[in-house]
User: Fold this.
Amino acid sequence: MARQNFIGLVVSQGKMHKTVKVRVQSKTYDKKINKDVLRRKDYLVHDEGNLCKEGDIVRIEAIPKISARKYFAIAEIKVDKGQQFALYETLAKKKVAEEEKSLVNEFINRRNELETTINKVEDLKILDRIVNKAKNSSETDRENLVKEINDIKQKYNIKSWPNVEPVLDLDISKASKDLSIIENRYTHIHKILETLMSPEYNDKKVEILTQVSKKDIEDLKPNVQKNLLRKFILDPKNECPVSL
Amino acid sequence: MNSIGFYRSFSVSATILAERLSPKWAAKQIVPENASRSKLASLKRKEKRWKRQIIRDINNFKQHKLKNIQFKVDPVLGDANNGFIKRVNQEIQDLSNLSFGYKRDEVEKLLFGVEKSNLNMNLNSSGSVYDNLIKAEENKRKSVLTILNLKNSNNKERKKIAVERAVQEFARNEGDTGSPEVQAAVLTVKIHLGMQHVKQMFKDKVHIQHVRELVQQRQRILKYLKKTRPEDYFYCIEKLGLTDDVIIREFNMDKQYFQDYKIWGDKKLIKLSEKQKKREEKYTALEKKITEYNELAKKKYDLLS
Assistant:
């Protein structure tokens, strides 16, 4: 004779050895209210190997009675949601531990960068002062001062002082630089796209499109490809694949 | 059949378990060599009685523990040495951040530019005029940096920087400020900053209520994230220093919480009734009893084997 079979949800695990609690839901007809009602019953189920986790959906099967309340065993795990959650938890722990290291490095780098910029500004100020001093000093002192000036110049790769070229990069100047790059590419966009779509540049095109698109490249029509490429090229962060 | 296999292996493993050093060893009686039959029988009865008592005690204590499961981590502040919170605190104390959204290096560069242009205007000056100019610029730099220093600003500025950091770390892509991860991270930052105030000002009930609402909102948002994107959810709570049970189980930041996690030191905040006191005493006595059983079991095991 076929064994009694139910499908249910694991609601409690880890409290008893090799035992889980499975909730089984069934519909019964209630005569008093002339309606179908949901009924729930919790079974203690034997789980050899402690495989199930809370949240799994399982099929349970009747067995000869093991203990006072245990007469079912897990026959199969239908949806292993609980086990997947457990897997995600372990994966997350690894990922976070890895990230932590890189974030610490990032913080140290930022601090070092700040130090170097402050030092550079200080040195440039000193350079100004020495230049002023050298103007009004006697010739014997002047040789030493010139030597100091040259040292600082060499350190930061400055050709002449005082000069007109920018010595420090500001955030504001970065934005204007980006804008000039975009303008330059925008004026030549037709040329760039034409060369990219030609068969000679096929490798580069494929390389960019794999980065950008979610679909397969073969499914994309040429006009869609062009649009994606245009978006890529007009972003100043990306390098222009064709030399202008 | 499969099920019969289950049955057999279960019974075998049960016997193996019993052979491990269990507190039941405490019930073993030491039999003298020339014991009479009636003495032997009485000792056997005694052992049985003891064994039953031990099993009952252990099971009662187990049931009590199952009913009162504690959270794995602090449900409000999370893990104590969590990396994310440390980084946020570092960001607030970091010298490169200034108030009103300025950065230290940018300000230094701009001030150098100002000094340079001022000197260029008075190119041919020398001696005391030049020195005075430089002194004035130095004063300017010092005063600007003190005004903008985060130590001299209010809590609002500090909160802004902390929130910015949280958004930057949890954003799915650049410019994302609304995903559940980001919302939960921002709420966590706000909770931590709020709890600093609560720790100092225990009479500020309004503020406590405010933090309580934040905690519940975070719980709600993370529950939604678990439903929709379970993989991201586990990554998010791990990074925030929380655990799954903290989110799923019912929690209210009440007096019991403040007492259990010693937010205001060892203060007793809840007065137990006579009945509750008795209950507590009963279970502490039971725990003591079980440790005694274990010690006795060890002693008897050494003696008898």
About this structure: Chain A has a mean pLDDT of 90. The first strand of chain A starts at residue 5 and ends at 16.
